[in-house]
């Protein structure tokens, strides 16, 4: 599954919720009037886009309607897509230009900080970089042990102290170790905290000060990890953390389990903090760089091709496939597909026969042969995408081609 497919699959709940409501709204109005815009504003707010951002989107849409003379709601979907894309602006990525590059990870407990650190460590390790992780969450029970499991899984070093020790001291030692070992990336875990825990917020300021002092010439990223399932509460968390820490980017986790992906727009527009990473699953490679264009394309996508598992082929590809595969091979593929999908083969065969009968029933009648030579014409070779197996041919060959490619990629990577 490519990066776009991962984003698209991760946004499925958001897309189903938000776009379903948008399409219903568009269909319920025959003309663009003030009532329509009031309904649209309310809809966007309920999709966790936020009040200010929703009003701004509707304001820009009003301008486009007036400039282009639009009169029908069906014309607005492309305009909305363009407005949101412009609003998200250029993509921002993690700065790892220095050696070591320091990444400070903050956020409340349960947002996915430890998982994010583990995935980041594995990612940079796979890129051939030397990574050190600092276990500075010394307050939460078993936090150090949990992080140690992730570092072992990723194959990177960890700097840790005893539970209950000074977090700032852990970060100090980690920065020193990163310099001495010539590490490329230092990722620092911190204790989960809320805005009303003044002692922990003060501790965060202390950690930030030590990093700036000890890694003065190093690039520093302060990533705030937010849980997408919390919706506008995540935006409020970002506002409060921003009062204490100089946040350079947001990591939005659990996007695949939330229907509230609209907060990406709210965070970006209202707080001016870019979303740099999104979590779209539980696997190590499910932490992805955020691409605004992919996000908007996935959100406004109107067709889902085989649940994002297969890439759609055009007619030319299908014709070429038809010429290069025998009926026996296709029958074997159908059997394998039936077994993989848990469908009894006889049911699939019955469906094939039904489709063939339908195809034969719609064919035009063949006129009587006019000459003796034409009485027994040589049968024409049919394309396998017509007649028998026709209705299954495209889907199965799509799947076969995609699976072969994935198997090939897996073999190459090993």
Description of the molecule:
The protein has 414 residues and is α/β, with parallel strands linked by helices. 53% of the residues lie in helices and 10% in strands. The protein has 16 helices and 8 strands. The protein has helices at 3-10, 12-28, 34-46, 51-68, 76-88, 113-126, 143-154, 167-180, 198-214, 232-242, 263-271, 292-300, 315-324, 327-341, 345-361, 390-413, and strands at 101-106, 131-135, 157-159, 185-189, 220-227, 249-253, 275-279, 287-289. The protein has an 8-stranded mixed sheet, with helices on both faces. Helix 14 (327-341) crosses helix 16.
Shape: globular
Largest sheet: 8 strands, mixed
For the secondary structure, the number of strands is: 8
| Cα Rg | 28 Å
Strand order of the largest sheet: 3-2-4-1-5-6-7-8
Overall pLDDT:
76
Task: Please tag this protein with its features.
single chain, 414 residues, alpha/beta, 8-stranded mixed beta sheet, 16 helices
In terms of topology, how is this protein built?
Layout: H1 3-10, H2 12-28, H3 34-46, H4 51-68, H5 76-88, E1 101-106, H6 113-126, E2 131-135, H7 143-154, E3 157-159, H8 167-180, E4 185-189, H9 198-214, E5 220-227, H10 232-242, E6 249-253, H11 263-271, E7 275-279, E8 287-289, H12 292-300, H13 315-324, H14 327-341, H15 345-361, H16 390-413
Parallel strand pairs: 1-4, 1-5, 2-3, 2-4, 5-6, 6-7
Antiparallel strand pairs: 7-8
Helix pairs in contact: 1-12, 2-3, 3-4, 4-5, 5-12, 6-7, 8-9, 10-11, 14-16
């Amino acid at each position: 599954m490519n990066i776009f497919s991962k984003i698209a699959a991760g946004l499925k709940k958001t897309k189903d919720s938000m776009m379903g409501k948008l399409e219903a709204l568009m269909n319920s109005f025959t003309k663009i009037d003030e009532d329509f815009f009031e309904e649209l504003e309310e809809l966007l707010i309920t999709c966790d886009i936020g009040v200010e951002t929703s009003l701004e989107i509707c304001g820009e849409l009003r301008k486009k309607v007036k400039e282009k003379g639009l009169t029908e709601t069906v014309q607005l979907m492309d305009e909305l897509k363009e407005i949101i894309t412009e609003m998200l602006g250029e993509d921002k990525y993690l700065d790892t230009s220095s050696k070591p590059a320091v990444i400070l990870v903050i956020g409340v407990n349960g947002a996915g900080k430890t998982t994010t650190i583990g995935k980041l460590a594995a990612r940079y390790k796979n890129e051939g970089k030397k990574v050190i992780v600092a276990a500075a969450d010394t307050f939460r029970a078993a936090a150090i042990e949990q992080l140690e499991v992730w570092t072992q899984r990723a194959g990177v070093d960890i700097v840790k102290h005893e539970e209950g020790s000074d977090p700032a001291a852990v970060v100090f030692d980690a920065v020193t170790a990163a310099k001495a070992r010539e590490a490329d990336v230092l990722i620092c875990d911190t204790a989960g905290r809320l805005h009303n825990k003044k002692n922990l917020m003060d501790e965060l300021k202390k950690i930030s000060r030590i990093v700036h002092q000890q890694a003065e010439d190093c690039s520093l990223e302060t990533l705030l990890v937010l849980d997408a399932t919390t919706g506008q509460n995540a935006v409020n968390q970002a506002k409060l953390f921003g009062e204490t820490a100089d946040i350079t980017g947001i990591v939005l986790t659990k996007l695949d389990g939330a229907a509230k992906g609209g907060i990406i727009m709210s965070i970006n527009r209202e707080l001016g903090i870019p979303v740099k990473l999104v979590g779209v699953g539980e696997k190590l490679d499910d932490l992805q760089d955020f691409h605004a264009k992919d996000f908007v394309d996935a959100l406004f996508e109107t067709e889902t091709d085989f649940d994002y598992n297969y890439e759609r082929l055009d007619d030319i590809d299908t014709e070429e496939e038809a010429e290069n595969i025998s009926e026996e091979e296709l029958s074997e593929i159908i059997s394998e597909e039936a077994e993989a999908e848990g469908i009894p083969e006889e049911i699939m065969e019955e469906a094939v026969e039904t489709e063939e009968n339908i195809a034969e029933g719609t064919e035009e009648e063949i006129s009587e042969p006019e000459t003796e030579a034409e009485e027994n014409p040589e049968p024409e070779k049919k394309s396998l995408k017509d007649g028998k197996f026709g209705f299954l041919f495209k889907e199965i060959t799509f799947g076969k081609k995609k699976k072969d490619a994935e198997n090939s990629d897996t073999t190459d990577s090993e």
